Amino acid sequence: MEPSGGDGEVATKRAKPSSDDAGGGGGEDRLSALPDDVLVLILLRLLTPAAAQTSVLSRRWRRVWALLPDLRFLCASDPHRIGAVLDAHEAALLYLFVETRDAVAGSAAAWLPAAARRVTGRLLFHNLDEGGGAQEDGDEEIFELPCLESATSASLHLGFLGLAVAPAGVFARLTDLSLARVRLHRPGELGDAVSSPRCPSLQKLTVRESRGLGNLTIHSDSLQQVELHDLHGLQQLSIVAPALQVLDVMKCFYHDHNQLVASISAPQLVTLVWIDDPRVPSSVQLGEMEHLELLGLSLYLVYGLQDSTLNRACLSFLRRFKVIEDLILTLAYLPKIDNYQYLMEDMTMLPDITFLRLIVLTNGHAFGASAFHVLRMCSGIRRLLLAFPATDVEAQKTCPSGCICGDQHNWETDQLLLNCLQEVEITPFRGSEHEVTFVKQLFDWATVLQKMTVTFDYSVTESMAKELCLVLRNFSRPEIRMEFYMDGGRFKVLSAPED
């Protein structure tokens, strides 16, 4: 659980106890003699229900809990009680956390209006949907998110409760809004609520796993970061945000076959991650982005059907930018590729790149030719991250004999000079024949390489890792610093010897 705000923000009164304030017994009550702000610090170590129960100790303790700047309700079963506690609370409420299990919309409506009146800091609501999303589309019960006039941050993980945003009111101080697992009603009003007229201070907007959000139109002068992940039903996306620096769109359009229309106007954008299938790339309109430094794109199929819509989308984005500091590019091999065509030749140009993050989903296939094709088009890179994430298919050391992935073999003899590449990171490294062969070639191509970092996959034992360290060191040169890690980098296997 997150801590509350600083001690200076606690609204307290340094009252001195009267002679009859001490409860029970005949002994001296030194604890009650402490000033309110010290007692508040003691009660902050308790969950809110336990802290409130101290009010029965004496008149001295009766209102101390109401001065807490931080209230927390875990696995709350009585939402009406939460509302009563909030109404009785006196201090500026800097942090409110409410956790429920399989709640219904009415239970959230029982306390959220009181929270909207009381919270001046962060509001966190987490509905644990252990019933597996029982509130899905068949249930029309909804609750309204009231206007949070004083809150600065709100994070609502709703377990697919039905939600409608208040149609009026100003979220005057809200800087951060996060909605997760939400089923929206009157969805157009979300865009209205987070735009500048009603949300003038909003800097970060996150929406994950939504249902019912078909249209999201935002006009904001303050937004700096937008993350949209897994928005089922989204068909129209329009963002006009002159201060926006980060836009992350992932898996928002895979689920539907309707035409997507997207328009982004963000001239100060620095990071654009678009991991999606826009089907018709021309329907995604991007304004001028002269400050863009990082671009992350959807999968590019190495083997597939000619004129793949997935590949066309990826190439369309690549053509829009001449210079990119940092490019995230994912090459994907389908498990079975014998009946497909080699598509790398369709990728004829890349932006001018300094840092390439090349992710290869190999499914056990030989990937050297496709990775070589990419590196040949960005030979001026200075840093390279080479990632081999696991796929759903069981990992193979080699693909089936006679697989067409071996037909593209000229890359091992063709010339390639990476005379600017100084740093390489490889993760997770499993030590397959294809991986070892490619790394060996990297040492030959990268003539000024200074450092290589290798993180072994969790499936690699320590003894196997040490053998692979020796193999890679034999390929290396004395001036290259080699570092090896295991299990996500938790501990180092071997590092470079002292000079």
Automatic annotation (TrEMBL):
Residue ranges of every copy of the FBD domain listed in the record: 415-483
InterPro entries in UniProt: F-box-like_dom_sf, F-box_dom, FBD, FBL15-like, LRR_FXL15/At3g58940/PEG3-like
SMART domains: FBD
Region (Disordered): 1-28
Region forming the signal peptide: none
Protein name: FBD domain-containing protein
